Amino acid sequence: MRWSARSCHDRVIAAAAALALAATGAIAAVAPPATAASSVSVSVDAALQLATVPATGVGVNIPVYDANMNAAATPGLLSTAGINTVRYPGGSHSDVYHWQTGAAEGGAYVAPNTGFDAFMGTVRAAGAQPIITANYGSGTPQEAAAWVQYANVTKDYGVKYWEIGNEVYGNGEYNATWEYDTHSSKSATTYADNVLQYISAMKAADPSVKIGAVLTTPGYWPDGIVGPGDTMDWNHTVLSIAGSKIDFAIVHAYPTSTSPADLLTKPQAQNANITGAVRSLINQYAGSNAPNVGIAVTEANAQAYLDTSPNGLFAPDDYLTWLENGAFNVDWWDLRNGTDCTKVTTVEGATDYNDGGMVSSGSPCEPAVNTPFPAYYGIQMISRLGAPGDTLVKAASSSSLLTAHAVRRANGDVDVMLINKDPNNDATVNLSYTGFTPSSATPTVHSYLKNAHGIGTTQSGSPTTQTVPAYGITVVQMHPTSAPCRVVYNKNEWSGVMVGNVTVVNNSLGQVNGWSLGFNFPGDNVITNSWNASVSQSGPSVNAANVSYNPTVPQGGSVQWGFRATWSSSDANPSAFWFNGASCAIG
After folding, report:
1. Do 42 and 429 contact (CB within 8 A), yes or no?
2. Pick from 483, 521, 520: which is nearest to 505 by CA?
3. Helix (H) or strand (E) holding 46
4. Could you report the per-residue pLDDT of 464-523, keeping only the tens digit for each?
5. Distance between CA 585 and CA 575 in Å, rounded?
6. Cis preceding-peptide flag for 222 (omega within 30 of 0)
7. Beta-ladder partners of 583
8. pTM of this prediction?
9. Confidence of residue 186 (pLDDT cuts 50, 70, 90)
10. What is the structure's pLDDT at 31?
11. How many Å apart are CA 98 and CA 64, to the nearest integer?
C-alpha cells in the first residue's frame, strides 16, 4: 500500500491497520552466545510434493520514487538475492502514475530516470521479469492497452503479468482512503465491471498476457464488509463478476504482531488459511476457468522489527509458506523504502531503522545506501534451498520454535532449510527421510546467523544431525547415496485416491534392454490404471515392466511411468525398490 517514502513517513490508515505498511531486516552488533541447545526432530518426505518452485516466486517491489531504481548496483542486488520478479511502478503510486509521460497525479513524487524503458533495462540485466500494475485509479483501459502494446509488440519485452490497480478497496468505499480513485462509484461492482473492460482492451493488444484482479486479504479489514451499492463483500462481488475472465487473484499481506515471537508464528498460522480462502472463492465463482486462476501476493512484509533479525527469519519462512500453499508470486515491499528517523529503535541487539526496504535507502539515520538488512539475507537463503523448477516437498518439525522447508532438486539432491526461532538457544536437529536416502558424506551447509552481515558456507554435521544457532537459518544440501539405480517417487493424494509418478535412474547398470521395477506398498493401495509401464499387482507387491516403446535405458539415463490408485487406511510410500533385481537408492 506504500504511497511515498520521500517524506520519511508512511501513510497509515487506522481502519486498515491490518494491511498497513511493512518492513525488512537490518545490520547490527553480534548477539551474546546461546546458553543451551534444545533437541528437535524434523521429518522430510521427499516424495510428497507440495508445489513446484515457480519462476516468478521470489519477487520485490521497486517504486518510481526510488531514485536508485536503475542505479548500476541494482541488477547485482537483485540477482544476488535470487530475485526473479520485480513489481512496478510501486504500491499506491500505481494508481496515480501515467507510464507514457512518467508523471503522477496530485504532485506525487516520481524520481528521475525511473521510466518504463529504464526499469526494463534493470530488470533484464538482473535476469528477472516484471509484474506491472496498470493505473486503475486515474487511468483507463485504453491507457493500459497502449502499455501492453508498447511493451510486448513495439519493444518485444514479453511482459506477461499485469495487475489492475493496487489496493483499490482503499478508495473510500469502506470509509478509509489511501488509494487514489477518480471513478464516480467506488464500489466493488464498479471495479469488477471495469476489470472486464481492462481485460478486453489489454488482451486485444496481446492475447498472451496474464491479468490479475485485486482482492482484500481474507481475515483482514475490510474482508466481509458489504459496501454501498454492493450486495456482497468485495471478494465475492469481484469474483462473481470477473472470476471467469481473470488469470490471477491478488492479495497483500502485512501481518500484525505483538512481539517478535508472535511475528514468527504468522507464516504457519495465516498463509495457508488465506490461500485456502482465496482458492475456495475462485472455485466458487471462476467456473471452468478456476484451475487456471493463480494467486499472487504482490506485497508482503512484516509491520514491525523491520530491519532486525526477527524479520530476517520471517522473510524466507513467509515466502516459502506462501509458495508451498499455492501462490505463484510473492513480492517483498520493497527493495529500498526510506524511513522516519524519529522511530529508530533497538530489537534483539540490532538497530531497527523502521525502514521497509530490503536494503538501506541511505536516509540520514541509516547505513550507506544499498547496505543489506537481515530480510535481504533471509530471502537470499531461498536461492540456497532451491531454484525454479525444483520441487517443494513436505517437511515437519516437532517444535514450534523451529520451522523446516525442503526442496527436491531436479538432479535428485534434497535440501532442507531449518529456521530456529528461539533467540537464546541453539537447536540440535535430528533429521529423518522418507523417499530419499542421503549419502553419508558430510553435507554442504549454508548459514545466516543472528545479526550477521552475510551468509557462510561450510561442510558440517551429517545428513541426520545438524546444529542450528539461536535465531539462525541453516540450509543443508544433500546428495543421494551412491547406488546402481535411483528411484524418485512422487505422489499427489486426495481422500481415497492418489496419483503416483515414478522416475528410475540407471546409475551404473550399463545399457538396460528390457526392465522391471519391483516394490511393495506399505499401505492398502490398489492400482487402477497406469501409463508408460505394464503393471501387475498381487496384494501389496507391485511389478512394473517396460512397454514396447521404452525398453531401453542407457547408463546415466532414466525412464518415467505413472499410475492411479485407490486407498482407504494408508498410502504410505514404498521403502525399497528393485530395478532388474538391483536395490535402488530413493530420492
Report:
1. yes
2. 483
3. strand 36-52
4. 999 999 999 999 999 888 889 999 999 988 889 999 999 999 988 989 999 999 999 999
5. 10
6. yes
7. 578
8. 0.84
9. very high
10. 43
11. 11
Which segments within 350-506 are labelled E, that is strand?
350-352, 391-397, 402-408, 414-420, 425-434, 444-448, 456-459, 465-468, 473-478, 485-494, 497-506
Four-point Cα dihedral 86, 125, 383, 560, nearest 10: 100
SS3 298: strand
CA 425 to each of CA 55, 180, 207, 420: distance values in angstroms, whole numbers, following the listed order: 36, 48, 54, 9
Nearest of 109, 246, 234 to residue 168 by alpha carbon? 234
Integer-rounded Cα Rg, in Å, for the chain is: 25
Strands 541-545 and 512-513: unpaired
Q: Which residues contact 280 (CB under 8 A, 6 or more apart)?
A: none
232 burial via Cβ count (<10 Å: 0-12, 13-18, 19+): middle
Q: Give the whole-angstrom CA distance, residue 88 versus residue 93.
A: 9
What is d(CA 74, CA 128) in angstroms, rounded to the nearest whole number?
A: 12
Q: Is 283 exposed, middle or buried (CB count within 10 Å of its CB: 0-12, 13-18, 19+)?
A: middle
Residues 6+ apart with CB under 8 A from 354: 23, 306, 307, 339, 340, 343, 344, 345
| DSSP 8-state secondary structure symbol assigned to residue 11 | -
Report which of 491, 452, 483, 490 is spatially closest to residue 583, judged by C-alpha positions: 483
* β pairing state of 585-586 and 456-459: unpaired
Contact 491, 525 (CB under 8 A): no
C-alpha cell at 174: 469502506
Q: Give me the residues paired with residue 466 across strands.
A: 429
At 61, the amino acid letter reads N
Please give the single-letter amino acid code of residue 573: N
Give the chain's length: 587
The CA distance from 476 to 465, in Å, is: 10
The residues near 480 (Cβ < 8 Å, ≥ 6 apart) are 412, 413, 414, 436, 437, 438, 439, 486, 585, 586, 587
Q: How far from chain centre, in Å, is Cα 149?
A: 29
- Cα gap 552→273, rounded to integer Å: 47
Task: Give the end-to-end CA distance of the chain in Å, rounded to a whole number.
Answer: 43
Question: Are the CB atoms for 218 and 19 separated by under 8 Å?
Answer: no
Which of the four pLDDT bands, split at 50, 70 and 90, describes residue 19?
Answer: very low
- Residue 270 confidence (pLDDT): 97
Helix (H) or strand (E) holding 129: strand 129-134
Helix axes 234-242, 188-205, angle to 10 degrees: 40
Residue 178, CB half-sphere, CA atoms under 13 Å: how many?
22
The tens digit of pLDDT for each residue in 50-70 reads 999 999 999 999 999 999 999
Which residues are paired to 134 by β-bridges? 164
Cα separation of 396 and 579, whole Å? 30
Where b means 16+ CB within 10 Å and e means fewer, 507-516 reads bebeebeebb
Closest by CA position to 210, among listed 202, 220, 219, 221? 202
**Residue 414, all three cell numbers:** 534434497
CB 210 within 8 A of CB 162: yes
Residues contacting residue 122 through CB under 8 Å, at least 6 positions apart: 69, 70, 74, 75, 78, 86
